[in-house]
Amino acid sequence: MAEKTLHLELENIGGIKRKEITLTGGPTFIQGPNAANKSSLLRGLLFALGSSTVPIRSGADEARAVLSSDETQIERVARRTDNGVETSGEAWIEDPDDVTLLERFAALLETNSLRSAVARNEDVEPLLKGPMNIESLEEERATKMRRKRELTTEIESVGDVDDKLEDRQRELETKRERLDELESKLEELYDEQDDTDSDDGLQELREKRADLRSDEAESEAQIEQLETAIDRLEDRKHEISAELEEAREAVEETDIESLKQKRKSLRSELDDVTKRLDVLQSVLTANREMLNSEFTGALGRDSGLMGEEVTCWTCGQSASIDELDETVEELTTLVKADKRRKREHEPKIDEISEQIEQVRRSETKIQELEAEKQDIEQKLASRRDSLDERQEQCQNVRERLTELDEEIADRNADQRSEQSELTGEIEETRVEIRTIRRDIERLEEACESLRETRADVERKRDEVAQLSEEITTLTDQIENLESELRAVFNETMDELLDALEFERIERVWLDGEFELVIAREVDGRTQSDSIEHLAESEREMIGLVLALAGFVTYDVDDVTPVLALDSLGAFDAERTRRLVDYFANKTDFLVATVHPESTVDTAFDTILFEPAVQN
Q1: Angle, helices 200-252/321-412, rounded to nearest 10 degrees
Q2: What confidence tens digit (pLDDT) does each residue in 355-368 have?
Q3: Global model pTM greater than 0.85
Q4: Residue 601 CB-half CA count within 13 A
Q5: Domains in the chain and their CATH numbers?
Q6: pLDDT value at position 578?
Q7: Among 23, 18, 19, which residue's Cα sits nearest to residue 6?
């Protein structure tokens, strides 16, 4: 199987005018003295992988990085413009979340955010927990909970469908049995009826009366249904009026324009703080590089009348080391203050945005309720018109029935009482048959509707059950994510510290608040301590170990093929070898910078860098 390789071409990056190297799979050491542009090579490599920034060589308008393997080749360019530095080209890593993992846990240069935070004893919790994206999990859970509540309300509003369906089916069966009885009875009555004694005129009147009584029964049923429907609509109209009043009060109580203006002002302040913070960070980085970066070696340090001085590699001006230290300290204080203001503004903006959204939801609800109210009023008007029409029809039927009863009574005077009773019974039976047939039709329709409702309720119950499981899973995931992350970090840090064998530091771990705690030996005794009491070299070592633990915890090797290490001053040659051994199988390519005096294991590839030559 062919060995993995990466070929890198750099142009005008940092102090590098042009450079090409080929990396083979496994560890590679970039060896050379200070000012040999070892860090510039790593920055160029990381820029090709996806890092958002790269130093453009002084005097050049653009920097270029080309990274290629057997299957892939990418090219990125950073160009100076009037609006700042703009980049073009497709990076090895494009996904923003993956780029964050690269910059935070695989680009372990001296300026790495985690290493710097530990060195300055700053809060590491947001840096460690950022990739977990808990906010999106909580938003997903809230969405599922809202959907579950909606479905539960819909299910409860339907009631017990199974009981209703069972009652309707039982009623339907009873009606069918009664219909069979009446049809059998009617046949018997017809058989008994003496056709010779029948009065055709009287029979016709009775037929008409039977039809009218059927019409009367049907009109009465329709009137009852309309009155019930009107009552339901009136109740819903009252409910809507109450909801409208409540929603209007919510809108009227909130001055949305004032909230928008306040949010706009806060966002403007936040933008100002962010821009100022970017400038301060850039100035702070420049001053730190003035003190610590290899580029200061281009002009060097001098001992002047005011003490040790350093010459700026960008402007050529000289400044004392003490002045630069004071400037860095002041800038650090300003950066911390602006970060604090930024953290204070963001939740205020979110709170105001939620208030504005609540008002908008209330306004939308008002529109929906007014539309529904208008629809109900139209339905009420229609139902009342229909009710008046049905009542008038029913009254007409009753008046006609009265007339027919009088006519039949006159004709019945001439009929024998026995025949009259038989005919009356036939008439009553026929009326009841017609009524029961209509009842059966309505019950069949009601049963079919209830079956559809039951199927819909079952589907909603299944969805509620599924949502409950998903909500429980998300809740457990949110609750356990931090503890699992902390446990994996602590386990990885234990393994790294065991491999590196630091004598005075026995253990480093994250407590429940994601604060770093150190157990170290003091006067022969082991005791816990905080970062601020450690020596600078010890903080540098712990910062690097913490970042490396993040590389393992977040499986960053699935995102980037390269792990880059720079400024390993806290590690001697033996510990550097152990560190490389530990990560040899955890990444395809491990690239680390070392000084010439470091003893490099001959089993690892080594690329020698000569000091940069100034043009």
Answers
A1: 160
A2: 888 888 888 888 88
A3: no
A4: 16
A5: 5-121+555-608 (3.40.50.300)
A6: 79
A7: 23
